[in-house]
């Protein structure tokens, strides 16, 4: 059967290196139990990663693929695969997995990788592990620590709920067609945090507003939250900082303090 044509509009770059595919599949290896761990693979393409996930006796695999040509290919070569034709970003994961935890994995399309992680955050209490390959720049952003240039919105929001591991870098020449950037494999493991102790939506708004003007001090980027008399004065010390200087815990503490002023 003819191979699938990579489509630029879908951000497709098909991995050719089977050794790397196997290493990625092993990033989501659950411990042996009586019940196989449900795992959703996003964008399987021609199944280079899928084949190793299907071989894992501890995984109950489902895949979702938007590209019709890939769907036809996968049904031909992997008839045992439970396959959904559709868009992951529009998928209701609570309908797919009505109860219990599940994992997420994939060689993610570079053009929607950030959106994928934001959706994982929406299901953070259901997804204990998420791993896969993304653009190296995005991987560095996710794993970055405070004070680094890459540290940003994704860093703070994901690290509030997940421990991030930057596992390894992947060169361009193992793809067809080769992307113009390097790639990297990351793994997110849910941490033990059950609550931020503040309004989660307010936390997101504050983080996003802070980094939307990352070169400015927080007193400028957060002006919409500082309209109560005395608020700027009480928070003067932290408001002279720039967003990349604040740790996740400091953003949480700032949210708590601003929330108390709003109330």
Description:
The protein is 35% helix and 19% strand. The mean pLDDT is 92. The protein folds into 2 domains: 8-190, Vaccinia Virus protein VP39 (Rossmann fold), CATH 3.40.50; 200-262, Orthogonal Bundle (Helicase, Ruva Protein, domain 3). α8 (200-212) crosses α12. The termini are far apart. It has 12 helices and 9 strands. The chain has a 7-stranded mixed β-sheet with strand order 4-3-2-5-6-9-7. It has 263 residues and is of the alpha/beta class. It is elongated and about 65 Å long.
What CATH architecture of the largest domain do you see?
A: 3-Layer(aba) Sandwich
Could you name the CATH topology of the largest domain? Rossmann fold
The largest sheet, given as strand count, sense and whether it forms a barrel, is: 7 strands, mixed
| Helix count from the secondary structure assignment | 12
The tally of domains stands at 2
Query: Going across the major beta sheet, what is the strand order?
Result: 4-3-2-5-6-9-7
Mean pLDDT: 92
Number of strands: 9
Q: What Rg is obtained from the alpha carbons, in whole angstroms?
A: 20 Å
Shape: elongated
Write out the CATH superfamily name of the largest domain.
Answer: Vaccinia Virus protein VP39
Percentage of residues in DSSP E strands: 15-25%
